[in-house]
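Support request from a user on the community tier.

User writes: "When I paste my structure tokens into the form, the page sometimes reloads and wipes my input. The last time it worked, I copied everything first. Here is what I submitted, just in case something in the input itself triggers the reload:"
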């Protein structure tokens, strides 16, 4: 089998067209083929850029193209280790899967609930405006990734990428993620995938839901389960707690875990009509049934700050992803079909550690808290503004053709009142520059929702070259360690840490 890259395929393709294009490129007869990679190339005419695995008549004529699949991930065997993982997000789940492959029986403790319980709490937030600080859009089975777009893109070229994609497919994700250039699972499918993963982990180890880590005493953790305190002994502990639980970070810091301040980012969510984004990106091809919903990723470097778009969710909604009462945090979520009216993306400005008010390692959390509290309105209504009004330093008085999708209601406010001044002014400087890259981005009716403050962790848990913390039997994995961000990167980090534990 050979691998043929960089074939430009028209949008209205069929097998015969593809076969002819491959034959033209390799000048040989194609027996059969399957898609290896597929992405949209919209730089000139809009086409697909595709790679194929091909069976050809004369394979030996194409020696330099012969396909050598990467070695699958091999996990060494291990015995007699009690490993406890705190958190069932991507880092915790993938750590557990690797430990199981090694023959171990990992235990996960998770402060949130399984999907059924989590859905009830999310519904209670959406319908009755009651936030459960332990079970919400960020806490519970699957972690912060469950109510998300499930984008699996990562900047890291890791040997574990294909294992992660194949594992998601094994547990129920659509196989198209194996070849799509911008793979995404969608929240509807993710809920089933993480439930299947949890069932599998429970066959080999155990997940304790509604168990919040509240203390560590030597090689014992103490978890709060409703009103009870429950102990678990361990040989190795993997903290996969994400970047949200300030209370847990505080406890860990007081227990002597070394941490350092880390920069993060803050800004707003911006919503456009998805139709507009499709038109900007695909021009006359917008709406073509074979094209995915269009996406974008932009950055500008100003004199003082960097401004960039992040976590763009085509055809999705802005969701309330706070974990504490009287705060507002927003993020974005889509279903597999990305079929809703608006696109949304984070519009972020870098926050430096010099912006924090003290040298305390946890000062980034205080900075974050301050603005998440300023963004709060009665009953979790979000502050929103039309883009034109934001750029003119005023509160909006009406919405235009873009309707805010944030589900808990909104109030019109001058967003300068809940953002650091440097964030507000950098956004105002950057938006016209983004419009030069994507003409039409500066839609006066685009909606800004405040605030977006959880794109990464404001603290890093110090790890040595063996990836262990200053406490020899405690590891920190995933986004909360400060070394990873996003679903795939956190899963990669979880795998790396599990392998280190196995090799101890
Ligand atoms: C709405 C939303 C949309 C997103 N969309 C995307 C996307 O499309 N693509 C992408 O790559 N990334 C996305 N992200 C980011 C992504 O979800 C995170 O980067 C990823 O989930 C981090 O994985 P993690 O396992 O390190 O931590 P998390 O997923 O945050 O999981 C940590 C878990 O630890 C648990 N926990 C915390 N403290 C304790 C404690 N004391 N005791 C017990 N359990 C505890 C939490 O309940 C949580 O379940 C999104 C995030 C959000 C909020």
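"...and here is what came back when it finally went through:"
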């Amino acid at each position: 089998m050979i691998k043929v890259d960089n074939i430009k395929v028209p949008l209205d393709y069929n097998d015969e067209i593809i076969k002819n294009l491959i034959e033209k490129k390799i000048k040989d007869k194609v027996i059969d083929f399957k898609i290896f990679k597929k992405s949209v190339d919209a730089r000139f005419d809009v086409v697909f850029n595709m790679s194929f695995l091909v069976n050809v008549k004369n394979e030996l004529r194409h020696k330099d193209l012969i396909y050598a699949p990467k070695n699958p991930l091999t996990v060494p065997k291990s015995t007699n280790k009690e490993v406890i993982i705190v958190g069932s997000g991507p880092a915790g789940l993938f750590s557990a899967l690797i430990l199981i492959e090694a023959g171990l029986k990992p235990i996960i403790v998770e402060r949130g609930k399984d999907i059924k319980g989590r859905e009830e709490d999310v519904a209670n937030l959406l319908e009755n405006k009651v936030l459960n600080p332990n079970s919400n859009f960020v806490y519970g089975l699957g972690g912060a990734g469950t109510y998300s777009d499930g984008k699996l893109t990562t900047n890291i070229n890791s040997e574990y990428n294909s294992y992660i994609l194949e594992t998601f497919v094994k547990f129920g994700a659509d196989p198209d993620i194996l070849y799509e250039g911008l793979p995404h699972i969608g929240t509807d499918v993710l809920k089933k995938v993480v439930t299947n993963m949890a069932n599998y982990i429970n066959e080999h180890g155990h997940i304790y839901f509604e168990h919040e880590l509240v203390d560590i005493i030597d090689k014992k953790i103490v978890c709060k389960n409703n009103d009870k305190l429950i102990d678990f002994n361990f040989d190795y502990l993997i903290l996969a707690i994400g970047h949200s639980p300030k209370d847990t970070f505080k406890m860990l810091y007081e227990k002597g875990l070394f941490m350092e301040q880390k920069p993060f980012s803050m800004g707003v969510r911006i919503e456009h009509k998805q139709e507009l984004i499709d038109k900007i990106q695909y021009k006359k091809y917008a709406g073509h049934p074979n094209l995915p919903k269009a996406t974008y990723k932009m950055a500008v470097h100003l004199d003082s700050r960097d401004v960039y778009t992040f976590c763009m969710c085509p055809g999705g909604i802005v969701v309330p992803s706070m974990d504490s009462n009287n705060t507002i945090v927003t993020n974005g979520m889509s279903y597999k079909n990305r079929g809703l009216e608006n696109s949304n993306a984070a519009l972020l400005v870098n926050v430096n550690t010099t912006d924090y008010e003290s040298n305390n390692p946890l000062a980034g959390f205080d900075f974050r808290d301050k603005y998440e509290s300023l963004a709060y309105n009665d009953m979790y209504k979000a502050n929103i503004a039309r883009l034109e009004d934001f750029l003119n330093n005023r509160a909006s008085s009406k919405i235009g053709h873009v309707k805010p999708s944030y589900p808990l209601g909104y109030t019109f406010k001058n967003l300068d009142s809940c953002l650091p001044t440097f964030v507000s002014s950098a956004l105002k400087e950057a938006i016209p520059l983004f419009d030069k890259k994507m003409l039409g981005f500066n839609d006066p009716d685009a909606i800004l929702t405040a605030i977006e403050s959880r794109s990464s962790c404001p603290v890093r848990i110090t790890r040595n070259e063996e990836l262990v913390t200053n406490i020899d039997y405690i590891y920190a994995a995933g986004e909360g360690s400060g070394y990873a961000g996003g679903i795939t990167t956190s899963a990669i980090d979880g795998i790396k840490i599990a392998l280190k534990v196995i090799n101890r």
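Agent notes: The reload is a front-end session timeout and is unrelated to the input. The radius of gyration is 24 Å. The longest strand covers residues 30-41. Escalated to web team.
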